[in-house]
Design the sequence.
């Protein structure tokens, strides 16, 4: 099978392949994908800071100072609309097997405080969540939409999958993530071109 171009994005072959896996559950994976934080676009940082008072109640008391939420390592990033990115802060968490996590990962339940705050405020669960967190374990680099499996976090347990006795194409397992990028019409086009159905 070859990669497909949908709405200007090349959907990688590794998204079209089947694996004997299903979607993860946080009680098992401990949100391992959040152990290293995430790079976010400058406008996403501004959006999160604008919602700071809504986010703070969903974080442990020691993490409510918004001046500590980002690591200050601002850098060029071609895949970000603004051209600039910055990392979320990574903090010690002795209760997590990795020992450190993104500052927004709640030790109590391993949920993202940005997602928890969105839900609590009646917004879409992904309203405050960074784009690359929504997409994970998929990613986009220069319009190449693919499974981001060539990195340490993926192989340590941040792959967002758990074993299953039946093979399922990854584009089915990660339908919500793909629809977020391609839209419902783009996802329907993908299914049509691989011979699937909704
Ligand atoms: S912002 Fe949320 S989803 Fe993204 S790495 Fe941090 S805790 Fe995880």
Sequence:
């Amino acid at each position: 099978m070859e990669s497909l171009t949908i709405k200007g994005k090349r959907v990688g072959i590794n998204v079209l392949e089947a694996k004997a896996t299903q979607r993860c559950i946080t009680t098992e994976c401990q949100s391992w994908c959040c152990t290293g934080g995430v790079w976010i676009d400058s406008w996403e940082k501004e959006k999160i800071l604008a919602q700071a008072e809504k986010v703070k109640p969903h974080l442990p008391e020691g993490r409510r100072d918004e001046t500590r939420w980002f690591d200050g390592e601002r850098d060029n990033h071609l895949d970000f609309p603004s051209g600039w990115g910055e990392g979320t802060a990574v903090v010690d968490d002795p209760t997590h097997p990795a020992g450190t996590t993104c500052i927004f990962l709640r030790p109590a339940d391993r949920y993202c405080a940005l997602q928890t705050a969105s839900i609590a405020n009646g917004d879409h669960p992904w309203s405050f969540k960074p784009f690359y967190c929504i997409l994970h374990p998929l990613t986009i680099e220069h319009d190449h939409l693919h499974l981001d499996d060539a990195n340490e976090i993926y192989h340590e347990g941040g792959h967002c999958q758990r074993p299953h006795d039946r093979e399922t194409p990854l584009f089915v397992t990660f339908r919500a993530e793909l629809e977020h990028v391609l839209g419902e019409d783009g996802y329907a086009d993908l299914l049509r071109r691989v011979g699937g159905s909704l």
The chain is about 30% helix and 20% strand. Residues 25-159 form one domain.
